[in-house]
Amino acid sequence: MGVFLCCLLALLVSSCSAGAGASAAGERCVRQGKAAYAPSLSPLPQGSGVCGYGAMAAEINGGFLAAGGPRQHRGGLGCGRCFQMRCRDARLCSSRGVRVVLTDFHRSNRTDFLLGGPAFAGLAKPGVAHELKRLDALSVEYKRIPCDYKDKNLSVLVEEGSKSPSNLVVKFLYQGGQTDILAVDVAPVGSSEWRFMTRVHGPVWRTDRAPAGPLQFRAVVTGGYDGKWVWAEREVLPAGWRPGQVYDTGVRIADVARDGCQRCVGGAASAAALDWK
Ligand SMILES: *[C@@H]1O[C@H](CO)[C@@H](O)[C@H](O)[C@H]1NC(C)=O
Ligand SMILES: *[C@@H]1O[C@H](CO)[C@@H](O)[C@H](O)[C@H]1NC(C)=O
């Protein structure tokens, strides 16, 4: 496994010169698209979406939630990614726009994003959100931004259905920065007997061979072209871990995608070129 991950990292670091970094470069670019209002995308359990954040979605980003279209899904990697977007009607739209987190996906070709109530209202200038909601699909520009969970460390939710001791399914919460988790290992605290976990979907990872706790974790995290290990070398899960509980890893991820070698294409501006604060 170790060898495999080293290769993976080498591959990631070299992908720029190989010209395979289009998606990462795209993350620095402002894109044009459509967004529509989705009343059902509420921060409630029934609106929790395919990423499976459940009732926690409400907490994740102050309830500023979005469902991404096919382009954002990326095999579930898109779960938990953060975007800033603004609409373009100078009469109705605020220039700052809104910051949303993806908690769900949709299949419609007509919009890139469906926005829940708070997020959609956040696009509007004060007092005109109701006018905006009447429009069918808004033209928006958007860019991926680092997620910023001010007072939260990366945390692990032990999923219902996990069976102590060996059957462990975890979901990562509060993954900050502009990063994707590409691999996860688990080991007993104080040991180096790492066992890999397998992605179930999006932020959810599982193993049927979990060692007895207490348990530590490590993950390969990428931001743009770079990959690196993130270690939580301390007790994350206690020996008596329980389904439904959230455990703090003590680690904060704040990496931002590095500048790549590819330019923004199709008339898209570099995110850095836009003053969007
Ligand atoms: C979306 O577009 C794809 C490819 O262009 C097409 O195959 C699919 O049927 C479209 N889906 C809908 C819901 O229109
Ligand atoms: C985050 O982890 C650090 C240890 O790395 C800890 O001191 C801090 O209290 C944690 N923060 C929260 C909000 O739990």
UniProtKB/TrEMBL annotation:
InterPro entries noted in UniProt: Expan_Lol_pI (IPR007118), Expansin/allergen_DPBB_dom (IPR007112), Expansin_CBD (IPR007117), Expansin_CBD_sf (IPR036749), RlpA-like_sf (IPR036908)
Signal peptide positions on this chain: 1-18
Location of the Expansin-like CBD domain: 166-249
Superkingdom to which the source organism belongs: Eukaryota
Database matches in PROSITE patterns: EXPANSIN_CBD, EXPANSIN_EG45
Coiled coil in keyword set: no
PANTHER family to which the protein is assigned, alphabetical: EXPANSIN-B3, EXPANSIN-LIKE A3
Name this polypeptide is given: Expansin-like EG45 domain-containing protein
Gene: LOC101752513
